Here is the input.
Amino acid sequence: MPEGDLEKITDEYKETAFDKIKQFTKVQFLHWTEEEFSCCFRKMLTLEQYREPQMAQLYQNYLASGPLTYMEALFSGMLGDEGKARQTALDFYGPIFLLYSIYDGADDK
Here is the structure.
């Protein structure tokens, strides 16, 4: 996946095949759901966000507003429209975020 400043990353994403983005998204999902440390960290942040403001901020940075803001910036650069970028980021990340909870509650992973 692209690396560097946001402008460079945005330009590279414009040239990235959809299948590569899809694969990267699957890898990220597996990172947060199946890798032991990351999965436990995500679950701990989910619980602790309600007890400690610092944990709430970490939760936002790692799992909620952080990824959404990053994707919104990428889509803004790609689409050239901030309003569409916000909605596209929500459309893209919303299902992923929801699937974390569905995965956690599923008997058959």
